């Protein structure tokens, strides 16, 4: 890796690490599918909102921070304390070679994953989102972004059949991962039972639900459960919900993309519970 010389009169940026020195992730294994020199146990972040929000988050440990001159200048103009390694656009493109059409806006970071609470540790208040094997990282990222906008306390999803909170998901979340805990569980229905014991109302969103979401009786705390597009909620997940609700719409098309359904349901629920005032 070669650094672009700093402009005359400017204090050179100090790198977080020596260029070319790989970081060891958990177990020291290389995450081959992400990039040639990107290692496992590390979260990949790129793009302005994603990286800048991570830099503002005091709980996020940044291991590597690369920026083009324009990216570094924007960080400075926004008052974000950072000392990136200045590189060319091509160098960041190379880092993201395994992520087609990645729009990095001159910023790239490798960071530790954020600590997430256990289901049993989450406060019994507000709104949670539970994702039942939603696998598309773009959809999950968009859901995280909406969750941050509506003050969701946490997102709960499964260890298997779910994307990791890195790369495309993080970019789609547009910084939302820094504000909403992303909790992974082994068994979603078991986590739902635990949440019920702690007072949560479990509302499954289903196109064939018994009642419109606007009509069901709501109370706080509530957990909204969303299923994958096409498959919807799995049978055991459906059976574990307290109520199945649908979103009635006046138009010809009656189904929504799961991320749009999440945003619409969050608007309806937070409005009815008075959580947006």
Automatic annotation (TrEMBL):
The gene is rlmB. It comes from the Bacteria. Belongs to the class IV-like SAM-binding methyltransferase superfamily. RNA methyltransferase TrmH family. One of its GO terms (molecular function) is RNA methyltransferase activity. InterPro entries: Alpha/beta_knot_MTases, Ribosomal_eL30-like_sf, rRNA_MeTrfase_TrmH, SpoU_MeTrfase, SpoU_subst-bd, tRNA_m1G_MTases_N. One of its GO terms (biological process) is methylation. This is 23S rRNA (Guanosine(2251)-2'-O)-methyltransferase RlmB. The keyword Chloroplast does not apply. Gene3D superfamilies: 3.30.1330.30, 3.40.1280.10. GO terms for cellular component: cytosol. It comes from Phreatobacter aquaticus. CDD domains: SpoU-like_RlmB. It holds the Pfam family SpoU_methylase. Residues 1-28 are annotated as: Disordered. Residues 44-117 form the RNA 2-O ribose methyltransferase substrate binding domain. Keywords: Methyltransferase, Transferase.
